[in-house]
Specification:
Layout: E1 5-15, E2 18-33, E3 36-44, E4 52-60, E5 63-68, E6 74-78, E7 82-88, E8 93-108, E9 111-122, E10 125-138
Antiparallel strand pairs: 1-2, 1-10, 2-3, 3-4, 4-5, 5-6, 7-8, 8-9, 9-10
Amino acid sequence: MKEDYTINIKGKQIYEEDTGEITLSTVGTYKERDGVQFIAYKEYDEEDARLSHTAVLKVEPGKVTMMRAGSTTRLILEKGRRHLCLYDTGFGSMTVGVFTSELRSALDHTGGSLEIKYTLDIDSNLSSRNELRVEVTPLPPIGL
């Protein structure tokens, strides 16, 4: 994987009165093929930094699919729709409902941004409200 883009991710999860935020700045790849964009980057294990999995965001008009290599996780985020998706907890997989209320993509052939607001539910009971912002920018050429 030729890592030639900076990938900045900011995620926010709201559960009842608790709010959690995570930020990640890493390098990865960004490709556009037939009107579909692919953002790929490595996620490292919190307990063993030598272990990593490749995360992929497949961005289509009105829809984003989040996948992780070596995992059954596959979340489908499509504005105005609820999908039942597999989510790998690390201890096993479970089915979650994913409803996307907002999906804005400002990605082009050079990069850009992606903003998503969605909820997760388990057995039709709200689990969390989530916000995700992804920014993709080319790395500067080496030697300049």
